[in-house]
Design a protein that fits this description.
alpha+beta, Thiol Ester Dehydrase, Chain A, elongated, about 20% helix, 2 helices, HotDog_dom_sf
Length: about 130
């Protein structure tokens, strides 16, 4: 993390942020269950991993300019699963960036791993404000 604003010009394809560690502890699970209902069993649902992905994205790239727009996301799960209580490590990387029609488009790749296993990979597409 840096104190200098992450502007479009400063974000370089291939640059990585992380790891950002998210614990699937009792507080996080309770918050998730408060919104989505009880989790049965001890495997972390995919939605909990995706929520951690979005948190990692927000925490990794700070400070950001106001006015960014979350334009899209893609998710690909590996089939491996984390268990409740595990710690998930997320790595955020600038995958690509381009200017189209006067707007700054950036795609970030986000990978999630737990216990030495890849859980998922996601892409977040953002229209960057500055």
């Amino acid at each position: 993390m840096t104190d200098k604003m992450w502007t479009f010009d400063r974000l370089i394809p291939g640059a990585g942020f992380g790891p950002v560690v998210v614990s699937l502890d009792a507080d996080r699970v309770a918050g998730f269950e408060g919104v989505y209902g009880p989790i049965t069993g001890d495997l972390a649902p995919d939605g909990l991993i995706v929520a951690g992905m979005m948190e990692a994205y927000i925490r990794a790239i700070q400070p950001r300019p106001k006015g960014n727009v979350h334009a899209a996301q893609k998710l690909a799960f590996t089939g491996a699963q984390a268990r409740l209580g595990d710690t998930v490590s997320y790595t955020v990387t600038v995958l690509s960036k381009e200017q189209k029609k006067g707007r700054n488009w950036i795609i970030f790749a986000i990978e999630a791993d737990a216990n030495g296993k890849a859980l998922m990979r996601g892409d977040v597409t953002a229209i960057w404000a500055a």
